[in-house]
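Continuing the batch. This is chain 6 of the set; chains 1 through 5 are on the previous pages. Same settings as before, nothing changed between runs. Recording input and output for traceability.
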Amino acid sequence: MSTTGRSGTTPRFPAYSSHFPEDTQAFVFAQYACQAGSLGQAANGAATIAELFSGEHQPEVLDRGWFTDTVGAHNVVWLAYWFDLEAYDRWQRSDRVRSAWEQLPSDGPVGHWREVCVIPVERNETLHTHQSADYATSGLSQHEAVEHLETQVHDYWGAARDRIADSAVDPLEPALPVFEPQTALERDTLGRRVTVEVPGNVALIRTAQDWSASTLYREKYLADVKPAKDRGVDYLATHPDSGCIAARNLDEESADGTWLERTCTIAWFASLEHLMTWCRSHRTHLEIYASFFQMVGGGEGPLDVAFWHEVSVLPSGSVTTEYVNCHQATGFLPLTADHRSTSTA
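Output for chain 6:
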């Protein structure tokens, strides 16, 4: 194995990337959520669709979390992965799933939304501080067929792009070069079902932190790194000029809603370049970066807080969305009317 990454430098620490079975061409990542004015209402709403993720053609990986969005609404989210596209297709076309979603009320105190991606593996990259056998965390690496192999392509700006196989042959130029949210919609999205045509080459990141097994770095992580990370996500969620369409800071939970000692951020960007520009140059991410290396430079011992991320660049037509009785700032709803189509339930 080479001792240097594509930047010509030697990484300062080991890191690992997920590798799929050779016959895997794509996988599905789906977010199904309930939105409400209180966390209790949102959790109850999420419970009504929980049974959909069990039984025939169920997802191979299922996580759960909740977050408070930019207008103060609470969202409880199911995070589901399928590695068999035919199984997912049968699942989402089944009578029980289709009818359950179609029968969701389009008015009242709760809303529901779903954002579903079919992700080509050559447009995806991951990076982990630990192998899954040593520190089991959430995300697609939970699938038994996914291996973690050490990579030298990390620890330099631009490494994420280099780990995306298609970036070697495709510039991944965005169909939405500038994200300018629509502040006033012609019609209120509450009480309606709204689908959004998502532009090509948007970038999706899920980045996570797990301190459940930490004894050495727990205090420093919670006191220094986590607050810096939270400030960065808050900035993205409220500054569309960064190119961030939506940013969600989730507290992860077990399937029954029990809080876990791990979090994740899920964010949509207009392009991979918007994401990478924020990472390499904005003060909020540089503060996260600095706080992390200050923590690990203390010499307490091997890092025992696990960090990982999944980044994907989605081709046109690979993302489907629907928002049922959700407020105007949810997900892709702030896109201009050119990217939206609306139907009343």
